[in-house]
Amino acid sequence: MTDQLEAAPPIAATPARSARAPVGRLRGGLILALVAGLGLVTLLVAFVGLGDVTKAVSAIGWRGFALFTTFWLPVMWVTGVAWAAAARSLRSDRIWPFVWARFVRDSAADVLPFSQVGGLVFGARSLIAAGVPERVALASVIVDMTAEIAAQFFYTLLGLGLIAVRLNRALAEPVLWPALIGLSLLFAAGAAVLLAQQRVVGGLGRLARRWLPDSIARADAVGAALEEIYRRPGRVALAVILHLCGWIGGAAASWIALRCMRADTPFWAVVAVESLMYALRNLGFALPGNLGVQEASYALLGPVFGVHSGDALALSLLRRARDLVIGLPVLAIWQWREGRALLRRRTGA
After folding, report:
1. Residue-level pLDDT at 16
2. How many structural domains are present in the chain?
3. What's the mean pLDDT in 262-275?
4. How far apart are CA 48 and CA 25, in angstroms?
C-alpha cells in the first residue's frame, strides 16, 4: 500500500506547477525589463560621456543634493493634499493620512519593481490602515489617479506651448511629434480611466455577486463613494489644480539641481523638458520605474533647450538617487507600522 502511494502521481502537482508558471513568467519579464533598462542607461552614459556625467554629479555636492531632496518633500505634500481633496477630506486632521499614503505610493512605485500598480495598492492599504474607510480609500485612489492624469495632460500642453513660443521651427519639429504621440497616449489613458471607472466597479460588483457573495456590499460601497465624490466636481477640479502645481513644483526642484550644478538653464526650459519627458515616459510603462526611458528623454530633450546632455543625464540619475533616499526610509517605516498593527491584531486575538 505504501509503495502504491509513493508510486502514484501527486494529484496536486500539476495545478501547483500551472499556478507557479504565470508567477515565473512575470518574474522573468520583470528581470528582462530591468536588464533592458539598465542596459539602456549604460549605453546613454557611454554615449554622452562618463566624464561629463560624473563631473555634473560631482558639481552639485552634498549640500546641493540635500537641497534638491528637501525641496521635493513639499511637492509630495501638495500631491497628498490633492488626493485628500479628491476624497473630500480637506480638514487638517484628515490630510496627513493622504500625504503619508502618497509617500508610500510613490516610494513603492519608484523603488520596488512593481511599477505604478503596486504603488496604488500600497497607497490604498496605507489609507485603510490609517482608519480611512475602505470604500473612500479605494474610490479616492481612482479619482486621484484620474485627476493626476488630467493635470499631466495640461502640463504637457504647457510644455508644447513653450516650444511653440520659445523655439524656432527647425528645433521644434523633431521634438513635437514624439511629444504629441506621448500626449495622445496620455489623453487616451485618461479617457479610458474616466470612462471605465463606473463600469469596472460595476463589473466587480457583478463578479462578486456570482463568486464572492460576501464582497457584494464592498463593491457597491466603492461605487457609491465614486458617485458621491463626482457629485462635487469642484473638489475634483481642485485636485487637478493641486496636481498641476505639483508638476510645476517638480520642475522647480530640477531647476534648483541644475543651478547647483552651475548650469545656467532658464526655468521655462526646465518646465518644457520635464513636461515632455513625462509624456515620453508613458511609452516605457512596461519598464520598472521607466528605467532608461527617463534617462533617454532627458539626454535627447535637454540639448534642444540649451541643457548640456551630461547635465541632463546627471539630473536624471540624481532623481533616481533622491527617490531612493526618500523611498527606502518611507517603505521601512511603513513596514514597521504594518508589522506593529499585525502584532496588535494577533495579540488581541
Report:
1. 47
2. 1
3. 88
4. 34
